[in-house]
Amino acid sequence: MTFIEGEITIARPATAVFDFAADQRNEPRYNPRMVRAEKVTGGPVGKGTVFRSAVRAAGRATEMRSELTGYHRPGWLASRTTMAQADIAGMLTFASVPGGTRMHWAWVVHPKGASRLLTPVISRIGRRQERAIWTGMKRYLEAHPQSGGMKYGIDIGRERLDH
After folding, report:
1. Would you state the pLDDT for residue 38?
2. Residues 6 or more apart from 144 whose CB is under 8 A from it?
3. What pLDDT was estimated at residue 158?
4. Biggest distance spanned by C-alpha atoms of the chain
5. CA 125 distance to own-chain centroid
């Protein structure tokens, strides 16, 4: 098992950052390793929403299933991700700060099978990859101030807004 955490400040309101991060279908816009992300449950994004996605690792696509296990807009999101190599559970928190939103991530990674032997490497690589992913989201949101809301049809609260 390994623990990965960090934080970043994004110059956007907490609701915009929360909404954008909650919908994993946005991730291919800012994470070049994410090759596909789709929502497989009906209704708006919220607790119980399931996403299926794939990331490119070592030249091949790795399939993942992610479920939002907790959802409190705009304060925090909890999720559980399963893939062949590991199970990951954790939380994103969002706090309004001067100049935007401080987003904190905390993940517990449980490598499976032969991957368990690589736990120290997974820890180092995971920290670097998480920093890169969220820095990509920061750059994207700050460069596209309309994101995180109506322009992209993001689920907000109980309604889906498509404009």
Report:
1. 98
2. none
3. 36
4. 48
5. 17
Residue 155: pLDDT above 80? no
Strands ordered across the beta sheet of 2-10:
2-10, 100-111, 86-97, 76-82, 60-72, 50-57, 34-39
Type of residue at 42: G
* CA-closest candidate to residue 91, choices 15, 5, 14, 29: 5
Question: Rounded to whole angstroms, what are the CA distances from 61 to 31, 42, 54?
Answer: 14, 25, 6
Question: Residue 23: exposed, middle, or buried by beta-carbon count in 10 A (0-12, 13-18, 19+)?
Answer: buried
Going by C-alpha positions, the residue among 86, 83, 106, 82 that lies closest to residue 94 is: 106
pTM of the complete model: 0.85
92: tokens are: 């994103």
Which amino acid, residue 106? A
Identity at 127, one-letter amino acid code:
R
Q: Give mean pLDDT, residues 22-29.
A: 97
- Is the pLDDT assigned to residue 127 strictly greater than 70? yes
Residue 116's pLDDT is what? 65
